[in-house]
Amino acid sequence: MYPTRRAFLATGLTPAVSLADEPPPAATNLGLLLYSYGIRARAEGAGFTDPASFITLARERGASAVQVPLGRRTEAAAALIRRAAEAAGVAVEGIVSPPPDTGAGRDQFAAELGTARACGAEVVRTVLMAGRRYELFSRADEYAAFARTAKATLERAEPVARSAGVKLAVENHKDFRTDELLDLLRGLASPWVGVCVDTGNNLALLEDPAATVAALAPLAFTVHLKDMGLEEYADGFRLAEVPLGQGVLDLPAVVAALRKGNPRVRFQLEMITRDPLLVPCLTDRYWATLGRVPGRDLARTLALARRTSRKEPLPRVSQLPPAQQVAAEERHVRESFAFAARTRLLAG
């Protein structure tokens, strides 16, 4: 909406919250994913998404880590990020796109993993599908072709990750059901390729979040920690991230299961402030690639949506003025960190 910070400020809007009069944040052991600030990132541009700047902001919110795109940088530029993280006491994880089947694409991927390592990152997160399975595909054969391409992509990526000494964490991104993702990764059988466990995404594929977390935990390299709200609508249910502790997930049980699978796994807050996503699970198109999903999964998920229906509708922000969108995003992040600190969710 506003391509630069200067253009944003020229509107007369002010930052959502001032830090000047606030006490130091409580320790949480919770990291912060850049995507939790998507509204501000779009408004302010490169200045906000610069990794060193975001490390400072994250530390001010109480974060112990960040997950950000690090790109392809010189050794000197990467060293600046690494020193900023060390000075702040903030661990760094990267975000990369998977390598396309071209020489230039593979070179770019290798360079980005090299940059991540130089920045101090031991883990980078990636996704194999940029959209949502039930929105992108209308036929089963289309999805089968994607699955074959995803397998080939990981086979290209694995030796690069191994050579760079960086672990590649594939997010469950509303693309694979848990058994499908596990089959893919176990077929690869590499200690350098595992999972970025998103604690809420597979609700959109009618999975029980506790079962998803428990199954993926042994392969977890990092976590997108979120809480979820649901509400029914005519074609299925709406699904939205909500501040930690305000949704349907049993967060202490989620954390315990993930730590059982990997005691050293790092948790990154993903609190995306946006209108709820539509999950049209009562339409024919939704089932085009999900024909093997048991009816009991549909029944359980719709029952969860009905049982946990909120007195107030899930937040809608797209129609708010820009300043109120920024304020809502900031509030949701801060409420999540406050919950993690107050409940000692990630203590130990």
Tell me briefly what this model is.
Helices cover 43% and strands 16% of the residues. The chain has helices at residues 5-9, 38-44, 46-49, 51-61, 75-88, 103-118, 133-136, 140-164, 178-188, 209-216, 251-261, 295-307, 322-343, and strands spanning 31-33, 65-69, 91-95, 123-126, 167-171, 193-198, 220-225, 227-233, 236-242, 266-269, 277-279. The strands form two sheets. It has an eight-stranded parallel β-barrel, surrounded by four helices. Strands 8-9-11 form a three-stranded antiparallel beta sheet.
Task: Outline the structure in words.
By secondary structure, this protein is α/β, with parallel strands linked by helices. It has a single domain, classed as Alpha-Beta Barrel (TIM Barrel), CATH 3.20.20. It is 43% helix and 16% strand. The protein has an 8-stranded parallel barrel with strand order 1-2-3-4-5-6-7-10, surrounded by 4 helices. Helix 4 packs parallel to helix 5 and helix 6 packs across helix 8. The chain is globular, with a radius of gyration of 20 Å. The relative contact order is 0.14. The N terminus is likely disordered.
